């Protein structure tokens, strides 16, 4: 029987959802390693050990996972939270910019997963909890690259979960809607902006800013992450917040034409 506290590794733990998740996992009895691109400048959190990590770097990921195992002896839960936002029409983002978003939001998640799985399989247990989004389930006009990355996370996670179950490991998805963080302010602007999209891009920025102002607190998402990390019989998908639950249900049951019309209305797009 395990007598030491279970160990959780949370990427992007210095702010937003990652910070709230790290604190919630501490409260749930976990020893927590949190990562930041610059751990020395991260605000200290009681019970959280901050370590440097660049999820876009193979060597950084390898070294980080080795250090966590050396310090804590094990990794029971990996929370893949680190990510970057991107706004603008799909045509306005260069392939290089899209690659940068995917390198963090998708390939970074894969790097971290591949780094911890040998350890989890060897110990016969573990959970990889991926912070996705309802934008991995629905279209997101003027956030096409970001939505594409989250759709990729959804497909990857569900597929790999089937591969891991026989080894005592699960891969689970957290699907929040908009959350009250700095997401809108820190999202990448398109690197190849086109005048034809300028007016609607500004409208979409306003839609996003309004949604974030009225969004759920990160603590709402953090509670769901703890549930995914600790439930005796975990579900593949966990929606976080009432809006996320409504969107998920509507995506499944609403007629496609009605759903399409609602997407355009919410994003203030002409019929």
UniProtKB/TrEMBL annotation:
From the UniProt record, which GO molecular function terms apply? oxidoreductase activity
| InterPro entries, A to Z | KR_dom (IPR057326), NAD(P)-bd_dom_sf (IPR036291), SDR_fam (IPR002347), SDR_oxidoreductase (IPR051911)
Q: Which Pfam families match?
A: adh_short
Alphabetical UniProt keywords: Oxidoreductase
Q: Does the keyword Oxidoreductase apply?
A: yes
SMART domains xrefs: PKS_KR (SM00822)
Decide whether keyword Transferase is in the record: no
Residues forming the Ketoreductase domain are 6-177
Q: Which family does it belong to?
A: Belongs to the short-chain dehydrogenases/reductases (SDR) family.
Task: Output this protein's name.
Answer: NAD(P)-dependent dehydrogenase (Short-subunit alcohol dehydrogenase family)
This protein's species is Kribbella solani
């Amino acid at each position: 029987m395990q007598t030491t506290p279970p160990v959780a590794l949370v990427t992007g733990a210095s702010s937003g959802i990652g910070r709230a998740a790290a604190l919630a996992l501490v409260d749930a009895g976990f020893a927590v390693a949190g990562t930041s691109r610059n751990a020395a400048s991260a605000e200290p959190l009681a019970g959280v050990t901050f370590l440097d990590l660049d999820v876009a770097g193979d060597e950084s990921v390898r070294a980080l996972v080795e250090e966590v195992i050396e310090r804590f002896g094990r990794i029971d839960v990996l929370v893949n939270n680190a990510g970057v936002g991107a706004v603008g029409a799909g045509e306005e983002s260069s392939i290089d910019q899209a690659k940068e978003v995917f390198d963090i939001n998708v390939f970074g998640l894969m790097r971290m997963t591949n780094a911890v799985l040998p350890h989890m399989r060897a110990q016969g247990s573990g959970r990889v909890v991926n912070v996705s989004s309802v934008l991995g389930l629905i279209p997101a006009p003027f956030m096409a690259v970001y939505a594409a990355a989250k759709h990729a996370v959804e497909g990857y996670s569900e597929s790999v979960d089937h591969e891991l179950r026989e080894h005592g490991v699960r891969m689970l998805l957290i699907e929040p809607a908009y959350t009250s963080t700095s997401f809108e302010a820190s999202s990448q602007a398109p690197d190849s902006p086109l005048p034809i999209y300028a007016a609607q891009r500004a409208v979409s920025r306003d839609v996003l800013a309004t949604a974030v102002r009225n969004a759920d607190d990160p603590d709402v998402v953090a509670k769901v992450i703890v549930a995914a990390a600790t439930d005796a019989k975990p579900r593949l998908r966990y929606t976080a917040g009432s809006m996320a639950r409504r969107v998920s249900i509507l995506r499944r049951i609403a007629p496609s034409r009605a759903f399409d019309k609602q997407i355009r209305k919410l994003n203030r797009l002409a019929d």
